[in-house]
Amino acid sequence: MFAFFAGRRLSSLEDRIEKLENELRTANLDWDNLYQMCRKLLGRTVKERASIESSQEAKAGTPRLVAEGSNQARGPLTPRQVELQQQILRRRAGG
Known about the structure:
The chain has 95 residues and is mainly α. It has helices spanning 2-60, 79-92. It folds into two domains: 1-62; 63-95. Helix content is 77%, strand content 0%. The chain starts with a helix and ends with a helix.
Protein backbone atom coordinates (compact mmCIF):
# COMPACT_ATOMS: atom_id res chain seq x y z
CA MET A 1 0.00 0.00 0.00
CA PHE A 2 2.83 2.40 0.79
CA ALA A 3 4.39 1.68 -2.63
CA PHE A 4 1.18 2.78 -4.33
CA PHE A 5 1.18 6.21 -2.64
CA ALA A 6 4.95 6.63 -3.10
CA GLY A 7 4.65 5.81 -6.80
CA ARG A 8 1.81 8.29 -7.20
CA ARG A 9 3.76 11.04 -5.42
CA LEU A 10 6.83 10.29 -7.50
CA SER A 11 4.77 10.41 -10.70
CA SER A 12 3.22 13.71 -9.61
CA LEU A 13 6.66 15.20 -8.92
CA GLU A 14 7.96 14.02 -12.29
CA ASP A 15 4.97 15.64 -14.01
CA ARG A 16 5.58 18.90 -12.17
CA ILE A 17 9.28 18.86 -13.08
CA GLU A 18 8.46 18.17 -16.72
CA LYS A 19 5.95 21.03 -16.75
CA LEU A 20 8.49 23.42 -15.19
CA GLU A 21 11.16 22.38 -17.70
CA ASN A 22 8.75 23.07 -20.57
CA GLU A 23 7.88 26.49 -19.14
CA LEU A 24 11.57 27.31 -18.71
CA ARG A 25 12.28 26.29 -22.30
CA THR A 26 9.41 28.49 -23.51
CA ALA A 27 10.64 31.43 -21.40
CA ASN A 28 14.16 31.02 -22.81
CA LEU A 29 12.83 31.03 -26.36
CA ASP A 30 10.77 34.16 -25.64
CA TRP A 31 13.84 35.85 -24.13
CA ASP A 32 15.99 34.95 -27.14
CA ASN A 33 13.34 36.38 -29.46
CA LEU A 34 13.10 39.61 -27.44
CA TYR A 35 16.91 39.93 -27.34
CA GLN A 36 17.15 39.55 -31.14
CA MET A 37 14.46 42.19 -31.67
CA CYS A 38 16.22 44.62 -29.32
CA ARG A 39 19.55 44.09 -31.09
CA LYS A 40 17.92 44.72 -34.45
CA LEU A 41 16.29 47.95 -33.21
CA LEU A 42 19.53 49.11 -31.61
CA GLY A 43 21.37 48.46 -34.87
CA ARG A 44 18.81 50.51 -36.78
CA THR A 45 19.12 53.32 -34.25
CA VAL A 46 22.90 53.37 -34.53
CA LYS A 47 22.71 53.46 -38.33
CA GLU A 48 20.17 56.27 -38.29
CA ARG A 49 22.23 58.29 -35.82
CA ALA A 50 25.35 57.87 -37.96
CA SER A 51 23.38 58.99 -41.00
CA ILE A 52 22.06 62.07 -39.19
CA GLU A 53 25.50 62.99 -37.85
CA SER A 54 27.12 62.65 -41.27
CA SER A 55 24.47 64.87 -42.86
CA GLN A 56 24.87 67.44 -40.06
CA GLU A 57 28.63 67.47 -40.53
CA ALA A 58 28.16 68.13 -44.23
CA LYS A 59 25.82 71.05 -43.52
CA ALA A 60 27.82 72.47 -40.59
CA GLY A 61 30.43 74.11 -42.80
CA THR A 62 28.04 76.57 -44.45
CA PRO A 63 25.37 78.01 -42.13
CA ARG A 64 23.03 80.40 -43.91
CA LEU A 65 21.88 83.39 -41.89
CA VAL A 66 18.96 85.58 -42.91
CA ALA A 67 20.04 89.06 -43.95
CA GLU A 68 18.45 92.03 -42.16
CA GLY A 69 15.25 93.19 -43.79
CA SER A 70 15.13 90.33 -46.31
CA ASN A 71 11.82 88.66 -47.12
CA GLN A 72 11.66 84.88 -47.18
CA ALA A 73 9.27 82.84 -49.30
CA ARG A 74 7.12 82.51 -46.16
CA GLY A 75 6.37 86.22 -46.12
CA PRO A 76 7.73 89.41 -44.59
CA LEU A 77 9.09 89.27 -41.07
CA THR A 78 8.99 92.04 -38.54
CA PRO A 79 12.35 93.39 -37.37
CA ARG A 80 11.88 91.57 -34.05
CA GLN A 81 11.17 88.29 -35.84
CA VAL A 82 14.26 88.73 -38.02
CA GLU A 83 16.36 89.36 -34.92
CA LEU A 84 15.03 86.25 -33.18
CA GLN A 85 15.50 84.15 -36.29
CA GLN A 86 19.11 85.34 -36.59
CA GLN A 87 19.76 84.37 -32.95
CA ILE A 88 18.27 80.93 -33.51
CA LEU A 89 20.31 80.36 -36.65
CA ARG A 90 23.50 81.48 -34.90
CA ARG A 91 22.83 79.03 -32.07
CA ARG A 92 22.20 76.21 -34.53
CA ALA A 93 25.42 77.06 -36.35
CA GLY A 94 27.32 76.81 -33.07
CA GLY A 95 28.06 80.52 -32.78
